[in-house]
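A further point concerns the way the authors explain their paired sequence and structure data. An entry of this sort, consisting of the sequence and the corresponding backbone structure tokens, reads as follows:
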Amino acid sequence: MRRAVIVLGSTAAGLAALLSFKTHSAAAPAPAASTPAPSTGTPPVIASATGSGATGSTASQSASAAPKASVTTPAAARTVTGTVANTQYGPMQVQVTLAGTKITKVTVLQRTDDGAESDQIDATAIPQLTSETLAAQSARIDAVSGASYTSSGYIQSLQSALDQA
């Protein structure tokens, strides 16, 4: 009888934990209200994965949030190359293109190269990592399951590029 009570209690606790588990989506949520970023001489600040920064707003969102007179012209694009991150399966290096503080493009300059399996993993993981980077606008992204070393090297090189920006 005592075991039955323990088993039922454990089952109920496990079920409650399972039902309360919340997953996260790959895309960052849209900001509730956005305003254009002021054009000051301060260094760029990369927005966090929550998407709370106004840097990801489009021209139409900016126009609806503020008068058109306050919309600034886009900053000149600049490219920053991250350091090479050496992984167990080879080097990873990314290059980031920024327009103001917004990440507009991520290019992988060097990728792990340890045979056909590594190529297959990279072919799947790198596009996912790139899309997450563009959505999060930072290096605070999730690693791709099954591509731990690729993800780690990508995030390391990405963070070093953003640190230089």
Notes: The longest helix spans residues 116-136. Residues 25-72 have pLDDT under 50 and may be disordered. Residues 32-164 form a domain with the Sufe protein. Chain: A fold (CATH 3.90.1010).
